[in-house]
Write a structure and sequence with these properties.
Elements (H helix, E strand, L loop, with lengths): L11 H16 L11 E2 L6 E2 L7 E5 H6 L5 H7 L3 E5 L6 E5 L2 E2 L12 E5 L2 E3 L12 E8 L13 E7 L7 E9 L3 E13 L2 E12 L15 E15 L2 E14 L4 E3 L26 E17 L2 E19 L8 E22 L3 E23 L7 E23 L8 E22 L4 E25 L2 E12 L2 E2 L11 E2 L2 E14 L4 E20 L8 E23 L2 E17 L35 E14 L2 E12 L2 E2 L15 E2 L2 E13 L5 E9 L7 E7 L8 H4 L4 E6 L4 E9 L1
Parallel strand pairs: 7-10
Antiparallel strand pairs: 1-2, 3-9, 4-5, 5-6, 7-8, 9-10, 11-12, 11-39, 12-13, 13-14, 14-15, 15-17, 16-38, 17-18, 18-19, 19-20, 20-21, 21-22, 22-23, 23-24, 24-27, 25-26, 27-28, 28-29, 29-30, 30-31, 31-32, 32-35, 33-34, 35-36, 36-39, 37-38
């Protein structure tokens, strides 16, 4: 397909010259700059981000607009502590925070390490989270365990999107963006006048874009997307002490999956393993994948007394996903899969926010969560070319889970030390239960098997935080916090093994932090240093020597992650804002035990040199955990005139080497096939903003993403001779590493009208 012509203004060299010419003007401006105070609700009350002892990154709607942040994956790219990729389809997200995550988001029998929230309402499943965000006021990214503040327990962190509330006054805002590969994005926001103490807002969003890997056949290309979503928000304030907020959001997305190509030179001169391809090497019949969702959120806020606020959050969400993937011989043999997922979730949370005198503040909550999911998968792997026949399997999994929790966080400010010290005690008690059943059909026999499992867990997780304010602009804190991730079962377990479950994973995190403003609030420096220990880590193992799609999870590992996070903002003049965000991670496995029934067990795989009970930690790494990640941004207004301004936003993010698969430790032969070398990406946006009479406004913008057109891999699926252990299949010469590459440079224009 033909992309649009790239405007000359987007050339990186031209952008650099423009910024260089403008900078001297900025530095001679009067020194009246001051960084804005950032108010967050991470602790369920409005507080300055600089006052709370939490490692948190906050982005306003204006910042997100300037940086082209439209969805969860864009948020992840903007925060160095987050690593992301789409897998196995273009509307599903793998997300890691501080080295914690889940490798296969398709599994409905397990939980994630990072929580997604919309206005405090939890989103359980990652299918469909890549819908564009409709009307966001800000996003708060909380790093580290958050079980004493949020209803659903998460060990890695939480991402909370806070929507704009209806204003009660008529207003319209229209965003329209056009770009490469027939990109079209339209966002319409309408605020309606207040009627009977009820304010309302309507949002409609549509987005479409052609794929970036062309299909040689007559079917769809890889990487296409076409979505339509809407949101209605209501706010009723009958008195000064009571508020009701409700939202309904719904959306449909038609898309095609990301394209996988061979990472090994299986077809020299035919399939190039060193760079992304732009066209499939054969015609492919590629159906459209469809995602539909509907979400409801009801929040009641009652000011019971001057020192007590009670909130009720009721949420319901349903999801339907039909996904199709053709791996296009990237494994060396024909491979395709079909996934059909349905999900329903309900949650009820009560929060109690208050204080006792001037010395004690508290947040307490009761939480209930219920989820029902189904996942049908058909998987075909044709190994007849190496004498192993065709693997053709159907599995149908039904899963239900319940969670009940009580949590509390109490902050005490003793009268000593000029009341500069805050001591925070936190605790969470959780009861989790889940059950699952699976019908399994091996079509080549044929043989149908069925199995089920049931689990329940109880966990108590305490925490302790000390926060000391050395001055109005400098605080430090020390934190000890525990958390856990519930156990589960493996959808891809071998026949007869689905009833084998795994236990919870425990995490203990130690953290030191500093928050500070300097030079009359022109400079803001925040930093966090943490060390996390993992016990009974949940790890996936291949559990069949011939069929590598058989995956079983075990509590087989102990690991730790040490890290440092730095956020620096500098505003030398009112026209220039510079930001530098950096994360350093040092992840390592202490123990990975060989367990019976895995591919490392010689009873299952006679080619394994290991024995049950051996420590094979040198064969594994924590994936998606680059040692160094940074984000540099410059927001520069270089021309102001009577009714507007012209500004330039540059954003550069870079990360060092990382591994895209866990079994890629130092002793793994061919581990380089699973390594993504370090890379950097540059985004740019040039904006003219105009203000007119009658509260009208207009923005005209030119934007580019990955403007240097940097190629980089985003996901790898690899086993065989390049895997962590030899198998009978690899002995026959069958090795593979299927890899997907990120989309190339994208350019466009945007018009924003407001009234």
């Amino acid at each position: 397909m033909t992309g649009m012509v790239v405007p000359h203004v987007f050339q990186p060299s031209r952008l650099a010259r423009m910024l260089a010419l403008a900078l001297p003007v900025a530095w001679t401006a009067p020194a009246l700059a001051q960084l804005e105070e950032v108010v967050v609700t991470a602790q369920k009350r409005a507080e300055s981000q600089q006052d709370i002892p939490i490692a948190i990154t906050t982005m306003s709607s204006d910042e997100m607009e300037k940086r082209g942040i439209y969805n969860f994956i864009d948020i992840a790219k903007a925060v160095p502590s987050l690593s992301e990729t789409v897998y196995p389809s273009s509307n599903m997200l793998i997300l890691y925070m501080r080295g914690q995550g889940v490798a296969d988001p398709m599994q409905i029998t397990s939980d994630g390490s990072v929580g997604f929230y919309v206005d405090g309402h939890y989103i359980a499943r990652p299918q469909g989270v890549l819908f564009d965000l409709a009307d966001t006021e800000r996003v708060e990214v909380l790093r580290g365990p958050q079980g004493t503040l949020y209803g659903r327990n998460t060990t890695g962190g939480a991402i909370n999107l806070i929507s704009r509330k209806p204003t009660g006054e008529f207003g319209v805002r229209q965003n329209l963006s056009l770009g490469s590969r027939d990109f079209l994005r339209s966002l319409t926001l309408i605020d309606l006048p207040e009627v009977g103490n009820v304010s309302s807002k309507v949002s409609v969003l549509s987005r479409r874009q052609d794929g970036y890997v062309e299909n040689r056949g007559d079917s769809n290309d890889f990487g296409e997307v076409d979505e339509l979503a809407g949101r209605v928000a209501l706010r009723w304030v009958p008195s000064d002490s009571f508020e009701l907020e409700y939202f309904l959001e719904s959306g449909t997305q038609d898309s095609t999956p990301i394209y996988y190509q061979s990472g090994f030179p299986l077809y020299p001169g035919y399939v190039d393993a060193s760079r992304p391809v732009g066209t499939t090497h054969r015609p492919i019949d590629l159906p459209v994948s469809t995602t539909e969702f509907e979400g409801h959120g009801l929040t009641l806020t009652w000011q019971a007394r001057d020192n007590l606020t009670i909130k009720s959050l009721t949420g319901y969400r349903e999801l339907a996903f039909d996904g199709y993937q053709d791996y296009a011989d990237s494994f060396g043999v024909p491979t395709n899969s079909v996934d059909i997922i349905g999900n329903y979730q309900f949650s009820q949370e009560f929060q109690f926010i208050g204080d006792v005198g001037e010395a004690v503040e508290y947040v307490a909550g009761l939480y209930y969560f219920k989820e029902s999911s189904s996942h049908y998968q058909n998987y075909v792997l044709d190994l007849s070319g190496i004498g192993q026949g065709v693997v053709d399997k159907d599995r149908d999994v039904e899963a239900r889970s319940w969670s009940r929790a009580a949590y509390a966080q109490l902050t005490w400010t003793p009268s000593v030390l000029e009341q500069r010290l805050d001591v925070t005690f936190g605790a969470r008690y959780t009861e989790d239960s889940r059950k699952a059943s699976r019908d399994f059909l091996i079509n080549e026999f044929p043989l149908e098997l069925g199995a089920s499992n049931r689990q329940s867990f109880e966990e108590f997780n305490p925490s302790l935080t000390l926060n000391y304010a050395w001055s109005d602009t400098l605080t430090t804190y020390a934190k000890w916090v525990t958390a856990y991730k519930a156990g589960g079962s493996s959808e891809g377990a071998a026949p007869g093994q689905f009833n084998q479950t795994y236990e919870p994973e425990d995490v203990t995190t130690y953290e030191l932090g500093i928050k500070s403003d300097w030079w009359d609030r022109r400079v803001r420096l925040n930093a966090a240093f943490f060390y996390s220990e993992f016990e009974d880590m949940q790890l996936n193992f291949v559990a069949d020597a011939f069929d590598t799609s058989v995956i079983q999870a075990y509590n087989a590992g102990e690991a730790n992650v040490a890290g440092a996070e730095l956020e620096l903002s500098f505003m030398p003049t009112p026209d220039l804002l510079l930001k530098f965000d950096y994360t350093h991670l040092r992840p390592r496995f202490d123990t990975v035990e060989v367990l019976p029934g895995t591919i490392f067990d010689p009873a299952l795989n006679p080619m394994s040199p290991h024995q049950v009970g051996d420590n094979i930690e040198q064969l594994f790494v924590l994936p998606y955990a680059p040692r160094n990640s940074l984000n540099l941004s410059a927001d520069y207004t270089f021309w102001r005139f009577s009714n507007g301004e012209l500004s330039l936003n540059l954003n550069y993010r870079r990360q060092s080497n990382s591994y895209l698969s866990s079994p890629a430790g130092p002793e793994v032969e061919g581990r380089e096939f699973y390594r993504q070398d370090g890379y950097g990406l540059l985004d740019a946006r040039l904006t003219m903003a105009l203000d007119f009479a009658d509260s009208r406004s207009l923005q005209l913008a030119l934007w580019g993403r990955n403007v240097t057109d940097r190629d980089y891999r985003q996901h790898v699926i690899g086993l065989g001779g390049g895997g962590a252990v030899a198998t009978p299949i690899s002995a026959k010469g069958y090795t593979y590493a299927a890899e997907s590459w990120a989309e190339p440079a994208t350019y466009g224009v945007e018009v924003i009208f407001g009234y």
